[in-house]
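dumping this here before i forget
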Amino acid sequence: MVARAIESGKTRIATKLEFTAERVLKELARLVTFDVRRLYNPDGSMKHPTELDDDTAAALAQIEVMEEFEGVGAERELIGLTKKVKTFDKNTSITTAMKYFGLLVDRKEVRSGPLAAATDEEVESQIRASAAEVARLEGVPVEQILSRMGVSKASGKTVH
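structure:
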């Protein structure tokens, strides 16, 4: 009964905020497709924040403007303007999108059978022995078989 009340409250809040899967995916798409060129006018000057389209503005984490002046009072004059823009991490956004679309899968190694209790070195030794046997049967160099298996020649580690 408590779990049902909590779930009902979460649904009510999400509905009130219009927080839907579609909206979350739209925001993710904005981060993944962000193009820094949309921050600038044709003359190379940076656009004012009010001039940014919604997709570009959504990709920005921070805008910092620093004005530099010289002189005091009526003699005070603006001599420089520094603008800094920080975006959300695009790599994280791309990784999240790839996971959503099933293009990136987290892997976990699971061992069973006779190799379940084996050390990494013992497993690698067995892989190399098996590769050597296949190479012998096919009449090819063992490195060719290891390469097909995705095993690095130098380290012996399997490449995922």
